[in-house]
Amino acid sequence: MSQQPDKTPQDPADPSATPAPEAEPTPPSPAPKSPPAAPGPAAPGTSTAGRRGQPAAAPPEAAPRFQLLSALLKGIPPEELHLVLEKYHDAIKRGTVKAVSAPSNLTFEVEVVTAQGKRAVRKVEDEIVLPDDGFQGWLAQERRASRLAVLRVTGRVETSLARLASGEDDFKTLLEIRRGRLQQPKAEKQKAGRAAS
To answer: What mean pLDDT, rounded, does the chain reach?
Structure first.
């Protein structure tokens, strides 16, 4: 009786196991026609990380995306802009907003509703702004404050579920403004309504 080889799988962790038969070797690939270029010397101030077994350095951060102020304010409702424009230079002085003047011939016009409820068109010199988190937070805060100041004097206090859910509007603050408007004597309401037109 002839012995047949054991067909049970071998445990790779078992050192006494016999190795599996090797596959036929593959032919070597042809040598490249030209040798690869050796890395040249690094420029001053650059990293050589990633060469000769060193860990690769993280890729450099993308350059900041600067935008024109006119582009950042485009599409913002007029009732949300008056405090943005009034407090803009102060925010630059404090370092909250990072901006430099654009060429002096770049200006834009923007419609605003003032705190007195009057519509006006303002001509603004354009600037190049870094719209970082500080700028975005400041802009959102001033937009809300502008809107609330206008709502206090102009009539109907309204919002949407989306504005409440996103935090753009505060229900309690809007309710206080509405109650104040409802408690005003009728003559004051009419005067405020005429000022808004």
So the answer is: 77
